[in-house]
Amino acid sequence: MVLLSYPYREEVTMANPVTSLKIPVELKKRVAAVIEGTDQSPHAFMVEAIERQTNLAEKRRQFHAEADAAAHDLLSTGMGYDGDEVHAYMRARAQGKKARRPKAKAWRS
User: Fold this and answer.
1) What contacts 72, CB < 8 A, 6 or more positions away?
2) Domain shared by 84 and 68, yes or no
3) pTM for this one?
4) Domain span holding position 94
5) Which of 8, 29, 31, 41 is deepest in the core (most CB within 10 A)?
6) If pLDDT is split at 50, 70 and 90, which confidence band does 23 have?
7) Do 69 and 88 sit in the same domain of this protein?
């Protein structure tokens, strides 16, 4: 968005376009109560909340993409890991012990 400044001599470009967000009255009251006594404004609180939820949604999407890729790999190669071996390996590593990594095995006949 480009705004012409008075007296219309130069253009002012808005770095952050304005977004209108309609928030229920009860939620506004809750936000006000939460930030009371802090240096944070309601706007800053909401921007931070949206940022946090966006990060979570992006991580969730990435997790699902990686799971889909792993499932595709499992089905296309017919190779996988024995769950008991993986758990034993992880337990040993968590206890600081050396452990041999499990080997992929054919799971189809």
Assistant:
1) none
2) no
3) 0.66
4) 80-109
5) 31
6) very high
7) no
